[in-house]
Amino acid sequence: MQEGIFIAASAGIKQSRKLESIAQNLANVNNTGYKRDRLVFKELMPPFPPDSGLEAGKNLLLPPGKSNANVSYVAVTDQYTDFTQGEFKQTEGALDLALNGPGYFSVQTQEGVRFTRNGNFRLDTQNRLVNQRGESVLDPQNQPIVIDAPGADISIDDAGNISAGTGLVNLPIGSIKLVNFKDPETLEKIGDGLFYQSDPKAEEQPATGTNMRQGFLENSNVSSVEEMADMLATLRLFETYQKMIQSIDSMDDQSVNNIGRIG
User: What's the domain count of the chain?
Assistant: First the structure.
């Protein structure tokens, strides 16, 4: 019955991974522009292929050579980001921006250009448009955007064009760059709502059909109710696998004791 313990432990470990993902989503439920993570599970039958996806055969507990070909294990084959758009909240902030449609703002960081859906921007001491980390938001020429208009009202239209004035006369200042990618799965999270393009061959594309909303921010796409329900279901499964391991271990003890008495 040893393999039964390995099978239950394999499934329990994957449920633990799922709990980690759920906890990460819940921790960021109030972070602007956050996109939730999801796991994909797969049944693996021995002998295991050399590459079974995200966690390959080495993530299983029993070597293929010692595993029964009639049983199956659980593996996590993929971890992906759900890029579904979150709901908007109105802030009335002149530099708060939300994207209605696919696409990302471009931000210049010390590590290079990164991308974000978090439009909670501000002006720094040099009147540059920056994110909350002080990193410059870029224009279509990949240059920092400077808004040097003290006391003027700042207007940003749905195409990202910036103007400033008193209402009677508005002077154009520049525009905000919006980009999109053919395959968003190549974007990797690096924290603080930023994404890194991991595919060097991926080309930036215009964010066609995307409108910018001034005075709004995009909430995370995490549903706390859904995540909590998923967490409870996952905990119950984890406890079930624990009880299975305990039951099998108890049966093994009884078998050893009975065999000892017969001898």
Answer: 2
